[in-house]
């Protein structure tokens, strides 16, 4: 049964490769929804099916204590040069996966009101990917989470004087994903950092539109559209072209798909966008177009602590065992 939503209009502009970036797009399709379609059968099951493994929420008290220990610098954690997080060699899927987080980096991202480093967003995505492979193997290819650094490549002109070079985007794919990973996915998720705020763009192949997951409590719809008009067309065009090049033209052309602002929890505390985006990467059910859990915007500090706890004690972290002050607060071992 179709669920009636607002119907999308399309851009009155032909796709002319990279030349479309010379002019500001009208973005007539920004913030409108398509009719929700009956989903096509997927090779992989959705990770949100009822029988799938769900990551239990970390113990709130332990997670908060771990964050407090690191931030306050208790015992051996007092050293700014103490490394606490890095991806094990066997779990790296890219030459770029050298996330090596020292205490100072964690403090700069996980203290309240601090903006999140992109390396932590990518590390979190690596943890999710590993969980899909190990604990949800029948769903391991349903979603593909692209690195946040890819959005920096797409928005290159925003930060540096110069011209976007399409082949630079392909490096992010060739090192991380097999072509089959891309072709069989139903959700392609891209974390985007722009003007100090994190959002997630989701190429939703179930409903054939691009979902925008934005936790910012914009005062007006106009301000939200102005923010995304600045970047949405470039992301759509350049990501579409990159996926086409990488898959030799086999990936679905989404260059004319509309953008939809999906209702999501709005952050209540400053600079929580990166952590809300991580929650969206994990919990966005693109088939139903909603989160699979409730996210309380007032618990931003708790969300930061729980995400840090999850990443520190994940199996991909080669820095285990951690200093005793932290390690003894680890979750119980998982059953074999």
TrEMBL record:
The keyword Hydrolase applies. Residues 11-23 have a biased composition (Basic and acidic residues). Keywords: Hydrolase, Protease. The keyword Mitochondrion does not apply. Residues 1-23 are annotated as: Disordered. One of its GO terms (biological process) is proteolysis. InterPro entries: Papain-like_cys_pep_sf, Peptidase_C48_C. GO terms for molecular function: peptidase activity. Residues 91-284 form the Ubiquitin-like protease family profile domain. Pfam families: Peptidase_C48. Belongs to the peptidase C48 family. This is Ubiquitin-like protease family profile domain-containing protein. It comes from Urochloa decumbens.
């Amino acid at each position: 049964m179709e669920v009636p939503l607002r119907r999308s209009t399309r851009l009155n502009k032909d796709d002319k490769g990279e030349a479309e970036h010379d002019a500001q797009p009208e973005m007539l399709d920004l913030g409108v929804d398509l009719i929700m379609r009956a989903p096509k059968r997927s090779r992989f099951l959705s990770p949100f099916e009822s029988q799938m493994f769900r990551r239990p929420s970390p113990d709130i008290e332990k997670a908060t204590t771990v964050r407090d220990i690191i931030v306050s610098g208790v015992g051996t954690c007092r050293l700014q040069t103490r490394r606490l997080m890095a991806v094990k060699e066997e779990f790296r899927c890219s030459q770029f996966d050298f996330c090596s987080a020292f205490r100072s980096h964690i403090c700069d991202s996980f203290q309240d009101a601090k903006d999140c480093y992109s390396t932590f967003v990518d590390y979190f995505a690596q943890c999710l990917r590993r969980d899909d492979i190990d604990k949800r193997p029948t769903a391991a290819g349903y979603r593909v989470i692209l690195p946040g650094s890819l959005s920096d490549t797409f928005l290159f002109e925003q930060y540096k004087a110069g011209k976007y070079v399409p082949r630079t985007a392909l490096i992010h794919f060739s090192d991380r994903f097999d072509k089959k990973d891309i072709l069989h996915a139903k959700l392609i998720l891209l974390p985007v950092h722009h003007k100090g705020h994190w959002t997630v763009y989701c190429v939703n192949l179930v409903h054939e539109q691009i979902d925008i997951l934005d936790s910012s409590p914009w005062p007006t719809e106009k301000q939200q559209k102005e923010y995304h008009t600045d970047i949405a067309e470039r992301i759509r065009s350049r990501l579409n072209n990159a996926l086409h090049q990488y898959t030799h033209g086999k990936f679905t052309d989404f260059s004319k798909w509309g953008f939809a602002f999906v209702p999501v929890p709005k952050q209540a505390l400053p600079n929580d966008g990166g952590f809300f985006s991580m929650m969206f990467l994990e919990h966005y059910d693109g088939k139903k177009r909603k989160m699979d859990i409730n996210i309380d915007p007032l618990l931003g500090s708790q969300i930061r602590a729980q995400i840090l706890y999850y990443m520190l004690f994940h199996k991909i972290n080669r820095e285990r065992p951690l200093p005793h002050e932290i390690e003894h607060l680890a979750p119980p071992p998982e059953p074999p």
